[in-house]
């Protein structure tokens, strides 16, 4: 079952941000993830949530998400994360297609 990682990043330090966005994509791909949305226009339709940026990544499974997040490759990006950005980060399981 597909699992979706949803990130709402707010860049902080420009140099650290550049380092982070150079490191993270290759780690996502290595663990089976693919970007579905990456910083396109965001418009609030309902409610008070007004994110400026949303990143949506599809992974093949919860195990793949957890392996990616705990990986030595992504650990390099996490070293600069706190300086690079603030964010909300969640994952949600997709639905299973009925036969």
Structure description:
The protein has a four-stranded antiparallel beta sheet. α1 packs antiparallel against α3 (72-84). With 99 residues, the protein is α+β, with helices and mostly antiparallel strands. It has three helices and four strands. The model has no long low-confidence stretch (mean pLDDT 96).
Write the layout of secondary structure elements.
Elements: E1 3-11, H1 14-30, E2 34-38, E3 55-59, H2 62-69, H3 72-84, E4 85-93
Antiparallel strand pairs: 1-3, 1-4, 2-3
Helix pairs in contact: 1-3
Spans where pLDDT lies below 50 across 5 or more residues: none
Question: How many strand elements?
Answer: 4
What class would the helix/strand composition place it in?
alpha+beta
Strand content: 25-35%
Q: Determine Rg (CA atoms, Å).
A: 14 Å
Average of per-residue pLDDT values: 96
Q: Which bin fits the share of residues in helices?
A: 25-40%
Q: Helix count?
A: 3
Query: Strand order within the widest sheet?
Result: 2-3-1-4
- Dominant shape: flat
Helix-strand sequence: EHEEHHE
N→C terminal distance: 14 Å
Regarding quaternary structure, what we see is single chain
- Sheet of most strands: 4 strands, antiparallel
Provide keyphrases for this structure.
flat; alpha+beta; 99 residues; 4-stranded antiparallel sheet; 3 helices
Write a short abstract of this structure.
Helices cover 38% and strands 28% of the residues. The protein has helices at 14-30, 62-69, 72-84, and strands at residues 3-11, 34-38, 55-59, 85-93.
């Amino acid at each position: 079952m597909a699992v979706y990682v949803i990130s709402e990043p707010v860049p902080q330090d420009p140099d650290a941000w550049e380092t982070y966005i150079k490191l993270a994509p290759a780690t996502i791909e290595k663990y089976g993830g693919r970007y579905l949305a990456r910083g396109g226009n965001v418009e609030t339709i309902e409610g008070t949530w007004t994110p400026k940026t949303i990143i949506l990544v599809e992974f093949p499974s919860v195990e793949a998400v957890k392996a990616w997040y705990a990986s030595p490759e992504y650990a390099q990006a996490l070293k600069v994360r706190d300086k690079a950005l603030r964010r909300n980060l969640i994952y949600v399981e997709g639905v299973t297609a009925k036969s």
